TrEMBL record:
One of its GO terms (molecular function) is prephenate dehydrogenase (NADP+) activity. It comes from Cryobacterium cheniae. It catalyses: prephenate + NAD(+) = 3-(4-hydroxyphenyl)pyruvate + CO2 + NADH. This is Prephenate dehydrogenase. NCBIfam families: PRK06545.2-3 (NF005111), PRK06545.2-4 (NF005112). Residues 8-289 form the Prephenate/arogenate dehydrogenase domain.
Amino acid sequence: MVESRLIGPVRVVGAGLLGTSIGLGLRARGIDVILADASPTNLSIAVDYGAGRAALPGDLPQLIVVCVPPDVTAEIVARELAAFPQAIVTDVASVKLSPLQQLRELGADVSRYIGGHPMAGRERGGPLAGRADLFVGRPWVVAAHDAISYQQATAIDDLILDLGAILVEMSPEEHDRAVALISHVPQVVSTIMARRLTDAAGSALNLAGQGLRDVTRVAASDPELWVQILGANAEPVRDILLAYRTDLDRFIDALDAPTAPGARRKVAEELAGGNTGVARLPGKHGQDRRFVTLSVMVDDTPGQLARLLNEVGEVGVNLEDLRLEHSPGAQLGLAEISVLPEAIGRLTEELAARGWRIAG
């Protein structure tokens, strides 16, 4: 068992995906985890799953992690601060300024509270989706404020490091502006695009490839949760959407008369601007390195994808990213393998020599 930085016990309030994953990760390090949830079923599943134990009279947690929906985060944090005056309390809500403001309005002791936000998740929620390694290598924001000292926040730093996450320090305002840009506005844009599909002809949808799936993937998220998130972070989201609307209007104006002088140049400049923005996204592990992509045809039969990935490893090339595209009715798919530029030539030659069909 790997030694933990935390002493424990750690109380986790909310046995959903994040709460259960935190419990599983800490239990793997031998920490005593106390679970609490408004749903007896969720609590029972998480306990049976090995994420911790139910609360007992006299429990004195060192740290409390509140993992509940954003609209009740401040209320639950205030309750935990009052119930356990010796404990440091954090949360995992995806907005940070609003809970802090609400806690101050409630008169809570924010000298023992500091907000957090792990940038990790899965397509499914609930305790059954929990994973001990969910946070490994993922950023975890700590939103510090003036009322809490560095020494008091040490337990939260230890929690993050114990779970294998990467600690990122930001103010609550900086965090909310950042997630508005990289998470909340993309959710809105994806949702609006996906709504265009509701009345689309089936013949059109059958042509859909990976591009459309990439753009609309997050549109399948929980509407109730996102109403809470967008309501709590409305101002920065609105500001970015207003700028986005200006950009969209400019693009539409260029398409009003596509053969007019300068119209094609305007469209090209907008597209090139998108290339510039994408190029700024960091690669794996936050590295600012660009990758190149190789598309390999994979027969739609059991074991073929596993064989491809195994042979990429045998060649000695590190896989940086992988995307799969499969058209309805087709008997093969495309595996888009991203690698470092210096590896692409050797990988192409080796895979071709092993019988793989290279599409691009």
